[in-house]
Design brief:
The chain is an alpha/beta fold and 386 residues long. It has helices spanning 17-29, 40-60, 74-85, 100-109, 129-135, 158-167, 254-270, 272-290, 320-331, 343-349, 367-385, and strands at residues 4-5, 68-71, 91-95, 115-119, 140-146, 171-175, 194-198, 210-214, 296-299, 310-315, 333-334, 336-338, 356-360. The strands form 3 sheets. The protein has a 7-stranded mixed beta sheet, with helices on both faces. Helix 6 (158-167) links the parallel strand 5 (140-146) and strand 6.
C-alpha cells in the first residue's frame, strides 16, 4: 500500500538512503564508544561525530563546529538553555505561538522567580518586533521565539528581533525545530546567540537526535543540564568547562548522530535554497487548490513565501480528528489533527480547543500527492455540506 505522508512537521519520512546506510555502516563496522578508548574504532566513532558537527555548523552558518552541541532532541536543548541560563529575578520574553517545548520549561521557571512575558501575535500568527521591544525590561535576560510556527507555518522576523536583543544586551534564542534544514539560517549574520534544532525533521536524521548552537563565550553563562563522564579530563571530578564536553555527558547516540550527519549532508548537497524553492511551490499548489473549496478554512498567512511548508485547515461540520481519520482510512493520507502541542497558538488563531488538521510537506512530497489531497478534501467538504 502506498501512503501519502503529510506529517513532516512531526517527523520527516521517508528518510534518505544515505541516512539509513550510515547508521547500518556504523553498527556493522564501527560500533565503538567515541572518546572513551584509544583504539581505531573509538577514534573512527569520534570522527563520525565531528563530521556531523561540521556539517550542521555549516548549514547554520556557525564558524566553529565545537559550538554545536548534540542532545536527544530540541526539547532537551531548550531545557538546557532555559534552566541553565535563567535565575530568580530574571525576565524572559516569548510569543504566544510557541510549542509546549518552549512554553512548559518557561512556565516551570515561574515558581522559581523567573518572570515571563508572552507577547501576543496577530490572528495569522505573525509577531511585531516592536511588541518585543516594548516588553524588554532592565531584568530581561533572554528572548526565545520560534523560527516558524508548527501550526501555521508563519516565519517569524528573527533577524529583526535579534537586532533588538543585541541592542539591549539580551540573549536571543531561536527554536528552529521546524526550520533547520529547510529555511536559510545564518546565526552569525542574524545575531543569533542560541539556536536549537532537532535532527528528525528537516535535517532528515533519525528520531532521538538534535542539539543547539551557542555563541562562543556565552556557554560560560549556561549551566549544564547534566554532568558526568565525557571521556575528557577524567582526572577531575568536576565537569569540563570547554566545548562541547561542557554539555555532552554520558555515552552519545553515535549511531543516531551518524544518521543525522548523513541526513544533514544530503540536505547540504541538495541545497537549502533548492529545498526552500520546492517547498514554496508545493505549499502554493496546495493553498491554491483548497482556497476555493466551500467550507474549508485555512489558517495563517496565505502567501507561501511567508510560511514553512506547513498548512493547517478545518472543514466546516467536521472535527479535525474525523477529517484526519477519513483522510487516512479512505485516501491513505497521513496528517496530524488537534492542538499540535501548541495550545497557545491555537488560541491565537481561533481554533482552540478542537485544533485543526495539519499538512506538512517535505523534499519527497510530489505534486501528484498534492493533487490527490486536494481532491480528497473537496470530497469530504462536499459530503459534509450535502
Amino acid at each position: 500500500m502506498e501512503y501519502i505522508y503529510f506529517d513532516n512537521a512531526a517527523t520527516s519520512w521517508p528518510k534518505p538512503e544515505a541516512m539509513i546506510n550510515a547508521m547500518a555502516a556504523f553498527n556493522a563496522h564501527v560500533g565503538s564508544n567515541p572518546g572513551r578508548s584509544g583504539h581505531r574504532l573509538s577514534i573512527e566513532a569520534g570522527r563520525i561525530i565531528f563530521n556531523a558537527r561540521e556539517t550542521i555548523a555549516s548549514l547554520l552558518g556557525a564558524r566553529d563546529p565545537l559550538s554545536v552541541i548534540f542532545t536527544r532532541n530540541a526539547t532537551e536543548g531548550i531545557n538546557t538553555v532555559v534552566r541553565g541560563l535563567l535565575h530568580p529575578g530574571d525576565h524572559v520574553i516569548t510569543s504566544n505561538m510557541e510549542h509546549n517545548s518552549v512554553m512548559r520549561p518557561l512556565r516551570a521557571m515561574e515558581p522559581d522567580g523567573v518572570e515571563l512575558s508572552v507577547v501576543s501575535c496577530s490572528g495569522t500568527g505573525d509577531i511585531s518586533p516592536d511588541d518585543i521591544a516594548s516588553a524588554i525590561k532592565k531584568s530581561t535576560k533572554m528572548i526565545i521565539v520560534t523560527h516558524a510556527s508548527n501550526v501555521t507555518g508563519i516565519i517569524m522576523p528573527i533577524a529583526e528581533i535579534a537586532e533588538i536583543a543585541r541592542e539591549n544586551g539580551v540573549v536571543m534564542c531561536v527554536d528552529a525545530a521546524q526550520t533547520a534544514g529547510s529555511l536559510p539560517i545564518d546565526v552569525i549574520r542574524d545575531n543569533i546567540d542560541i539556536l536549537v534544532f532537532t535532527g528528525h525533521k528537516s535535517l532528515y536524521g533519525p528520531q532521538g537526535t538534535g542539539g543547539f548552537y551557542i555563541r562562543k563565550g556565552l556557554e560560560k553563562m549556561v549551566s549544564p543540564l547534566e554532568r558526568g563522564g565525557t571521556g575528557s579530563g577524567s582526572e577531575f571530578e568536576e565537569q569540563p568547562d570547554f566545548m562541547p564536553d561542557r554539555f555532552e555527558s554520558g555515552t552519545p547516540n553515535t549511531i543516531g548522530i551518524a544518521g543525522l550527519g548523513a541526513g544533514a549532508g544530503y540536505v547540504a548537497a541538495m541545497g537549502i535554497d533548492t529545498i526552500r524553492e520546492k517547498e514554496i511551490a508545493l505549499t502554493k499548489l496546495f493553498l491554491d487548490g483548497i482556497r476555493s473549496i466551500k467550507g474549508v478554512r485555512i489558517y495563517g498567512d496565505k502567501n507561501p513565501a511567508k510560511r514553512s511548508a506547513t498548512v493547517s485547515f478545518t472543514i466546516d461540520g467536521m472535527s479535525p480528528s474525523d477529517i484526519s481519520f477519513d483522510l487516512d482510512e479512505r485516501f491513505n493520507i497521513m496528517s496530524r489533527p488537534g492542538l499540535h502541542c501548541a495550545p497557545s497558538a491555537h488560541r491565537t488563531i481561533g481554533t482552540f480547543p478542537d485544533g485543526a488538521v495539519r499538512f506538512s510537506f517535505g523534499i519527497f512530497t510530489t505534486e501528484k500527492e498534492i493533487a490527490t489531497a486536494i481532491k480528497a478534501i473537496e470530497t469530504l467538504s462536499y459530503e459534509t455540506g450535502k
